[in-house]
Amino acid sequence: MTRNRRASLNEIRAFHARMMAVASNSADERLERIFELVPREAFLGSGPWQIKVNRRYIETPSVDPCYVYQNVLVALDVTKGINNGEPFLHAALIGAAAPKPGEMVIHVGAGTGYYTALLAMLVLPNGYVQAFEIDRRLADRARENLEPFEGVAVTNDDATALPMQSANLVYVSAGVVALPAHWLEALLPGGRIIFPWQANRRTGLAVLITRTAAGYEARPLMPAWFIPCVGASDGAKCSKLPSSADAWSTRSVWLTRDRSPDETAVAIYKDLWFSTADARPPRSS
Fold first, then answer.
1. Helix, coil or strand: residue 207
2. Strands 187-200 and 167-172
């Protein structure tokens, strides 16, 4: 019979990594080990930490890192409501996005760099992660936290206003109302963008878009609410908002310059629109 004892931090971290790997719904055997290798507490600042529960923050009883190995939001800036996101949700997003060795990744909304670090590990060897964080203080912390990691850079700027280099994956950690068209245009063939779409005031869902030969395929994944993405959260840019059911029925996204909205459109923005039809090339006249 095993004698009762308190688990060590390494055991707690390893078990948390196993739960994250299961939450990822991915067959990628690297995930559990990488989730275990990157210590969450190293990106959260000095404890005790503020954990968000039902719109309130509760301080951990001590600086013991075991408290952050839960599926909880941990404050990065309480006054601005910026948090390190839920590990199981991000694990599922990472699993769906499927970063691969050697890929170029853009991370929008890096915070202090925890999920950036996971992405950087997953694209080794020869991959690269370009992270954007609009908050200067958080960007500085992310840059410092990510110094030990290979192939990653942090830019303190607005990713919605800057040109975006070609990428295999754009991973967005901020709520988007109107997806910037140039983020789609940056995708290489087979490239993916995964983002929290704030489709309307009551509906937030994670969406995976893949660039294919036929167009931009879209796959709604799961409910998701994030702090708004500065520069991509203006509802005024939308001429047609989707209902919740319509948002979940999205199957493709089109640049307006390539195809005008038709009867399948469920959401129409200035430069692009969301459709319930599968991505397929337009019929030749």
1. strand
2. parallel
Tokens linked to 63: 């600086």
User: CA-CA distances (angstroms) from residue 206 to 5, 11, 174, 186, 231?
Assistant: 40, 31, 11, 19, 18
Q: Give pLDDT tens digits for 68-96.
A: 999 999 999 999 999 999 999 999 999 99
Q: In terms of pTM, does the model score above 0.85? A: yes
Give phi and psi for 35, each to the nearest 5: -60, -35
- Under 8 Å between Cβ of 61 and 48: yes
Strands (E), the chain: 50-53, 56-59, 73-77, 82-84, 104-108, 128-132, 152-155, 167-172, 187-200, 203-211, 216-223, 238-240, 252-255, 265-269, 272-275
Evaluate if residue 282 carries a pLDDT over 70. Answer: no
* pLDDT of 1 strictly over 50: no
Name the β-bridge partners of 196: 206
Q: Token pair of 34, please?
A: 């990488």
Report the alpha-carbon angle 20-100-155, nearest 5: 85
pLDDT digits (tens, 9 = 90+) for 52-63: 999 999 999 999
**Nearest Cα residue to 115 out of 140, 79, 84:** 84
In the three-class reduction of DSSP (H, G, I as helix; E, B as strand; rest coil), residue 10 is classed as: helix
CA 270 – CA 255 distance, rounded (Å): 9
Contacts 24+ apart (CB under 8 A), 24-27: 24/91, 24/92, 24/94, 24/95, 25/92, 25/95, 25/96, 26/94, 26/95, 26/96, 26/98
Mean pLDDT of the chain: 95
Position 39 scores a pLDDT of: 98
- Residues with Cβ < 8 Å from 199, sequence gap 6 or more? 205, 241, 242, 244, 247, 267
